[in-house]
Design brief:
three-stranded antiparallel β-sheet; alpha/beta; Rossmann fold; 19 helices
Length: 483
């Protein structure tokens, strides 16, 4: 996931270029935690959403995070994969001031009122009000590191720079130090993803930075009043066997917040719609198909056959939606359709490619495909019941019982599907089916529905009748025949 877009278009950086001009403007310096707290409270007071694009966490995780920010606590988010931890961390950028002044050329981006390194202090003493300043956008004040076993102390904290030593400086000289990610995030947010994957000795190196705000490198202690907000994510300790958060470091985090998957179906659907690239300029993916995928994902999370310690990521449904969009576009291209529309038959392609994203219990070996197919059919049946409640399909069932068949498939065009439907006399059943799942376009004859939309809706109804054991179904992997 990418960093969420700013709420408004970025403004131009201020034109103030010296310390004297900055003082004359009345600029006030705030420490980072005060800046985050004040901006959060201002957004809440104005009734604005500080967390755009996050669904299903409004009443649980977000209030806890807001309290932690107001209290000035470093935060660790605990949760299974695909629960939006990284997105939540990246959204913190929106709580920073859009522009902040820094001493031009300073390695740590220090505030002109509050230099912390020897070099910056010397520059302030030398130039005074003529000290040159530049402006840093809030997007530049967020640093993210994916913790890996090969991460070193030098990466996060820093190390002695041999080139500077070779120039004649002594090892004890602070100017010989090459700073790592955390010091370089001074006056900003540093996020560590998958924190338990850091070797324990690396986690130990973070202790002083988070509590005493000093840096220890190769036996030298450098006192720097670092102003950083440390946030991290981790899988629950009972799942990850690659490492753990050492107790002293865990104690340094003022807030430990458990995340979760969306509790409501609507939130699950909203996540898929927001995150999936469904090629909207080329493909229509009906809402009912996204609903089926969301229900399918939730069924997997409830299944005893699936290893729930590893979780079923929201990326599962996202990847599934993107797969069915791709399948529809491929079919439309081959068949020469004007507009690609995803149909129920495309769900099979998602199952074919997504099975490897699920970790099953050890006793289910060899039954993976059967379990996925069963849970997908359950999700489809639930969606059919919700969408077609009270609709009488007796005429269609009767036509099939009398020998009518409907042929569809991954390479059967929508026009061919519609042409093969049994005639139901004066009945408007097919129109009623379309009205239930395809909202009409106002002012357009026939509701403005395309052949693809009509075929998708009717195919859902046929699949529902099959799952209710009202009609039969035969599929050879190329064509599917309802009859």
């Amino acid at each position: 996931m990418t960093t969420p877009a700013p709420r408004t278009a970025p403004t131009s950086a201020p034109t103030i270029s010296t310390l004297g001009e900055l003082r004359a403007s009345g600029h006030q310096h705030k420490h980072l935690r005060a800046e985050l707290r004040d901006n959060l409270l201002a957004l809440l007071a104005a009734g604005q959403d500080p967390w755009p694009g996050l669904h299903g966490l409004e009443d649980t995780v977000i209030p806890q995070l807001e309290r932690a920010i107001i209290a000035g606590h470093d935060v660790v988010l605990l949760g299974e994969r695909g629960q939006g931890k990284t997105r939540l961390l990246r959204t913190l950028v929106g709580l920073l001031d859009e522009w902040t002044p820094v001493i031009s050329g300073s390695e740590l981006g220090e505030h002109p009122y509050d230099p912390v390194t020897v070099t910056s202090k010397a520059a302030l003493a030398s130039y005074g009000d003529d000290l040159r300043i530049s402006w840093r956008h809030r997007e530049e004040r967020y640093a993210e590191k994916l913790a890996t076993p090969d991460t070193s102390v030098a990466d996060l904290i820093g190390d002695v720079d041999p080139m500077k030593v070779a120039e004649g400086r002594s090892l004890g000289d602070p100017e010989t130090i090459h700073f790592g990610l955390i010091p370089r995030s001074h006056r900003g947010i540093v996020a560590i993803n998958e924190l338990p994957d850091l070797a324990e000795r690396i986690q130990v190196a973070m202790l002083n930075v988070m509590e005493e705000r000093d840096i220890q490198i190769r036996g030298y202690v450098l006192r720097l009043p670092l102003d950083v907000f440390v946030v991290a994510s981790a899988n629950p300790e009972d799942y990850t066997n690659r490492g753990r958060i050492i107790t002293p470091l865990k104690d340094r985090f003022g807030a430990e917040i458990r995340t979760h998957y969306p509790k409501a179906l609507e939130a699950e659907i909203a996540v898929v719609r927001q995150e999936a690239d469904l090629l909207p300029d080329l493909v229509d993916v009906p809402d009912f198909l996204v609903e089926i995928l969301a229900r399918f994902t939730r069924n997997l999370r409830d299944s005893s056959a699936v290893d729930q310690r590893s979780g079923v990521s929201a990326r599962f449904a996202i990847a599934g939606a993107e797969t069915i969009a791709a399948a529809a576009l491929r079919r439309a291209t081959i068949q020469g359709e004007d507009r690609a529309v995803a149909r129920v038959v495309d769900l099979e392609t998602a199952v074919d490619v997504l099975g490897g994203k699920i970790e099953f219990e050890s006793g289910e070996e060899g039954r993976e495909g059967e379990i996925l197919t069963h849970l997908l059919r359950t999700a489809t049946a639930e969606t059919v019941r919700e969408r077609f409640r009270g609709l009488d399909f007796a005429l269609l069932v009767e036509a099939v019982e009398e020998g009518a068949t409907v042929v569809t498939g991954g390479q059967v065009s929508a026009r061919d599907v519609l042409a093969g439907l049994p005639v139901l006399g004066e009945s408007d059943l097919y129109d009623q089916v379309c009205e239930r799942v395809c909202p009409p376009s106002p002012g357009v004859a026939g509701g403005g529905r395309t052949d693809g939309e009509r075929a998708a809706a009717i195919e859902l109804a046929l699949e529902g009748l099959f799952l209710a054991r009202k009609i039969g179904k035969d599929s050879d992997g190329v064509e599917t025949v309802y009859g």
